[in-house]
Each structure stands twice: as C-alpha cells, then as structure tokens.
Design brief:
The protein has helices at 195-200, 205-220, 225-235, 240-250, and strands at residues 3-4, 9-10, 15-16, 21-22, 27-28, 33-34, 39-40, 45-46, 49-52, 57-58, 63-66, 79-82, 87-88, 93-95, 104-107, 112-113, 118-119, 124-125, 130-131, 136-137, 142-143, 148-149, 154-155, 160-161, 166-167, 172-173, 181-184, 189-193. It has an 11-stranded mixed β-sheet, with no helix packed on it. Strands 2-5-8-11-14-17-20-23-26 form a 9-stranded parallel β-sheet, with no helix packed on it. The longest helix has 16 residues, at 205-220. The chain is α/β, with parallel strands linked by helices. It has 2 domains: 3-143, Hexapeptide repeat proteins (UDP N-Acetylglucosamine Acyltransferase, domain 1, 3 Solenoid); 198-251, Up-down Bundle (Udp N-acetylglucosamine O-acyltransferase, Domain 2). The protein is built from 4 helices and 28 strands. It is elongated and about 65 Å long. It starts with a strand and ends in an 8-residue tail after the last helix. Keywords: Acyltransferase, Cytoplasm, Lipid A biosynthesis, Lipid biosynthesis, Lipid metabolism, Repeat, Transferase.
C-alpha cells in the first residue's frame, strides 16, 4: 500500500503505486494516477484527470490538475500528463488542457518548476526545462527541451521556445524564441546565443561553430529572412542542429524574435 499520512484525503478512485508517499493534509482526486517512487509533500492538491509518472517530487502547497483558467472552459473531460523525475516546488500551478487546445497539458521528464511558477492549459513542455521563481507560461505555449526560463518571465499564449533557449529574468516574451538563442527585455529581443547552455548540453565545438554561423546569417546579416533561410538550406542544413533551427523559424506562426 502507498504510504498515505492519516490526515491526507485520497479518493478511493485514485490509483497510486505501492511506493508512493503522500504527506499530511494533501488532497488527491478520483481520476488521479501516480507512478512509482513519487513523493507528494504536505498540503498538495492534485485533481482532474491527472497522470504523474515515476519518481516525481511535489512540494508543499502546489496545485496540479486544476481546471484551466479559461473563460471558455465548461467542465469538459480534459487531462494533464506529467512524465518522470520532475520537481514541482512550492505554490506552483499546472492546469488541465482544454478541448480547443487538444484536450491535454503535457510536461515531460526531469523538469524543475521553481516556486510560484505557472504552466497554463494546453502547454507542451519538453524535458530538462527550468522555470525559475514566478515564471509564467500562458495557454498553448510550446517549450522544447533544455530551455531555461529565468525568474519573473511571462510568455504570451501560443508562443514557442526553441530548445536550449535562455530567457533572461523579467522578460516579456511575445514572439517565438529560436533554438539556442538568448533573449531579454520588454518586449524580449535577441541578445546572442546561449553558448553556455550548448556546452553544458554536450554540443561539440564544431556544432557550436555551425550554430554561430547560422545565427549570424539569420539575425546579423543584411539578408531578408527568406534569403537567409535559403542560404542556410544550401550550406548548413545537412547538420541536425542547424536543420532544427531552420525548421523552427520556417514553421513559426507568431513570428520569430529578432
């Protein structure tokens, strides 16, 4: 049996692995599924059709799986899916999806959500993402792997953040942030590449060199965007790290931060 503190309230319909720990005064709803080795701290609320993978750690006072903060939501059966080995710190809020957004909010593996951060309805967050204190993602935001979002950042709905991007503290992000790039300010603009993040992510010197050249062509040359993309397609797109950047820019719907 799961180790449930006597003061916790766990609905009989909830499915908890035998190795789950639930702390004092926490509340777990009827549609919740929690995987092996997950620790639920005190005063945590998990509700809705929420699935938690293995070895997650939810700290005190966080709220996971509550109804979307969307005026159009009318109680439809939507879900929240969280992967493995995530840390969800104090007062974090992660909401269910909406029908209009595909019905699910998704969080991958090994993410760190620091105190008071927020993931809204229909967001899709990858792996090894950091949301620092007070960072907030509006609805339908897509965050690729290994993105670092500093404190007090706000990200506009439907915006995409490319992998290994770095969002500086206090930034207001209203357009897509290309992979590997650093942005800052209100409204956020490009200020360079996240070279430290690439090095920590295991990129070789050659890969980083190609990313630097792609960045120069896209954002520092006098070429128009379509001309720059065509040049990258011709010269560097055989390399996966550049192909990912090109594809990200080409598929942007909100426009790309410049």
């Amino acid at each position: 049996m799961a180790q449930v503190h006597p003061t916790a309230v766990v609905h009989p319909g909830a499915r908890l692995h035998d190795t789950v720990e639930v702390g004092p005064f926490s509340v777990i709803g009827p549609q919740v599924v929690i995987g092996a080795g997950t620790r639920i701290g005190p005063h945590v609320v998990i509700e809705g059709r929420t699935t938690l993978g293995e070895r997650n750690h939810l700290f005190q006072f966080c709220s996971v799986g509550a109804a979307p903060q969307d005026l159009k939501y009318a109680g439809e059966d939507t879900e929240l899916v969280i992967g493995d080995e995530n840390q969800i710190r104090e007062f974090v809020t992660v909401n269910l999806g909406t029908v209009a957004g595909g019905g699910a909010t998704r969080l991958g593996h090994r993410n760190l959500l620091l105190a008071n951060s927020h993931i809204a309805h229909d967001c899709v967050v990858g792996n090894e993402v950091l949301l620092a204190n007070g960072a907030a993602l509006a609805g339908h935001v897509v965050v690729e792997d290994s993105v670092k979002i500093s404190g007090l950042v706000a990200v506009h709905q439907f915006t995409r953040l490319g992998r290994y991007a770095f969002i500086s503290g206090g930034s207001m992000v209203t357009m897509d942030v290309p992979p590997y790039c650093t942005v800052q300010g209100d409204r956020a603009t490009l200020v360079g590449l996240n070279v430290v993040g690439l090095e920590r992510g295991g990129f070789t010197e050659e890969q980083i060199g190609r990313v630097k050249e792609a960045y120069r062509i896209l954002f520092r040359s006098k070429l128009g965007l379509h001309e720059a993309l065509a040049q990258l397609r011709g010269e560097l797109s055989a390399h996966p790290e550049v192909e990912h950047l090109v594809r990200f820019v080409e598929t942007s719907k909100r426009g790309v931060t410049r």
